[in-house]
Amino acid sequence: MISTWRTAAGRARRAVRGTTAPITHGLIALCSVIFLLGPASGLTPGYGAGDALLAAQRTYFRRWGVVPAELFDAPVREALTPATALFVHGSWVHLLGNMLFLFVFGAMTEERMGRVQFTLFYVGCGYLALLGYAAANAASERSLVGASGAISAVLGAFLYLFPHARVTSLLPFLFFLPLRFPAWVVLPFWAALQWLAAGRASDGPGVAYLAHLLGFGLGFVYAWLRYGRTGPKGGPGRAPAGDGRATRVKAAPAPVTEGEKQP
Which of 25, 89, 94, 212 is catalytic? Predict the structure, then answer.
């Protein structure tokens, strides 16, 4: 078993090193491994089954996730939970939805920003998005986990950097027909759906739509402040409409992702 895990880890490392977006693929691999080894996957026998597994999940999410009611008057360990929560997911659907969006939009954003800047951007915006959600729901006792705040920031930055990139989308109300739209149509539409859902959410929603909106806004503003003052030929500025890199979004995300789960 140990040799199998080592072999798989070695292959994952070689695959990440061979890509032009190693941070994006590394984040996907890290989140996937953490999920598979945790209780939410249901694949690790050590957590038990039935009620024992549910109890292990609650304990796990409370330890590594954000609990708004405890975040602002607890020790330093609690202050780190908005960072640790970015790598923990509550279900298979939660993980796969987030990783799909990161895979589609992360690589081009990382290429434009660079590895170090993209890493700091991802973790920083994700942290602030979860912190903002916790501040707005300071009385909530429910744990909050997931990378949706950080990935929403990637979407916001992508919108500014590559507004003319054509994204293949699967729209449920059109029988999931694959249609291609520019990012300036798809991503604001996604943000509008999050806004509407956040307005309908009641006490402690199961999906943290507010964290999505905060992350999206942070990402867009960061890209605007960082790249808006330099043209495409004078540095790492905004991609022009005809930039080849702005037309290579080939995957097919739905317009909505399941957000941070609160088990």
Answer: 212
User: DSSP secondary structure string, 119-135?
Assistant: HHHHHHHHHHHHHHHHH
pLDDT digits (tens, 9 = 90+) for 153-202: 999 999 999 998 877 665 544 444 455 667 777 787 777 877 777 666 55
Which whole number is the average pLDDT over 120-148? Answer: 92
pTM of the predicted model as reported, rounded to 2 decimal places: 0.78
**DSSP SS3 for 176:** coil
Question: For this structure, is 212 an active site residue?
Answer: yes
Residue 2's CB is within 10 A of a number of other CB atoms, namely 6
Q: How many CB atoms lie within 10 A of CB 15?
A: 13
For residue 166, the surrounding DSSP H or E stretch is: strand 166-171
Determine how many CB atoms are found less than 10 A away from the CB of residue 26: 18
Which of 34-48, 119-133, 162-176 tops mean pLDDT?
Answer: 119-133
Query: Which residues neighbour 65 within 8 Å (Cβ) at sequence distance 6 or greater?
Result: 81, 84, 85, 88, 143, 144, 145
Collect all residues with Cβ–Cβ distance below 8 Å to 146 and sequence separation of at least 6: 85, 86, 88, 89, 90, 94, 98, 208, 259, 260, 261
C-alpha 40/C-alpha 98 separation (Å) is 15
Q: What pLDDT does residue 188 have?
A: 75
Q: Is 148 a catalytic residue?
A: yes
Q: What share of the chain is helix, strand, coil (3-state, %, to 5)?
A: 65, 5, 30
Residue among 148, 152, 164, 169 flagged as catalytic: 148
Q: Is 180 helix (H, G, I), strand (E, B) or coil?
A: strand
Quote the pLDDT of residue 178: 56
